[in-house]
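Hi support team,

I've been running sequence recovery on a batch of backbones for a student project. Most finish fine, but this one hangs at about 90% for roughly twenty minutes before it completes. I'm not sure whether the input is malformed or the queue is just slow. I've pasted the structure tokens below so you can try to reproduce it. Let me know if you need the job ID as well.

Thanks,
M.K.
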């Protein structure tokens, strides 16, 4: 599945207009749609929605899904904006650090580093720099252990 919501699509996957202009990302597509009514009408009618197809196939299938039924320019842009906003929120939920292709959820990190709301902090539970590094080191060990249990080997 393609996933380039926040950047350019791979070379050869651009949306090519009838004038030969290559649209490489969502920002360029949205800008072109907003500035050129004829462009939208040329690619969206009762039988087709070229933008929805391109987004689903070349950008992100979750973003592109359900856009094909929208035939009105303003409704299309509103729906697209909502889907992109949702994708941005979901992206923030994950730490960008990947270990052998597996995401570490920010929530999971917070549970290990931050006490629960009703939990009182005892002197020995207050994280200082040394204890913080110990927690991070322990988490790294847990990740390695989890990867080895799942049959994956750590690349060096």
């Amino acid at each position: 599945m393609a996933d380039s919501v926040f950047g350019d699509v791979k070379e050869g996957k651009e949306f090519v207009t009838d004038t030969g202009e290559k649209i490489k990302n969502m920002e360029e597509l949205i800008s072109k749609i907003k500035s050129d009514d004829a462009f939208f009408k040329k690619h969206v009618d009762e039988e087709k929605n070229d933008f929805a197809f391109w987004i689903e196939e070349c950008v992100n299938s979750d973003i592109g899904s359900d856009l094909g039924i929208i035939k009105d320019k303003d409704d299309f842009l509103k729906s697209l904006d909502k889907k992109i906003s949702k994708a941005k929120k979901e992206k923030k939920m994950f730490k960008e650090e990947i270990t052998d292709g597996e995401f570490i959820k920010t929530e999971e990190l917070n549970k290990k580093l931050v006490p629960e709301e009703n939990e009182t902090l005892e002197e020995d539970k207050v994280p200082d720099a040394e204890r913080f590094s110990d927690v991070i080191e322990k988490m790294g060990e847990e990740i390695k252990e989890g990867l080895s249990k799942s049959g994956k080997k750590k690349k060096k």
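--
Follow-up from support: It reproduced on our side and the slowdown came from queue contention, not your input. The chain has two domains: 15-92, 94-149. No action needed from you.
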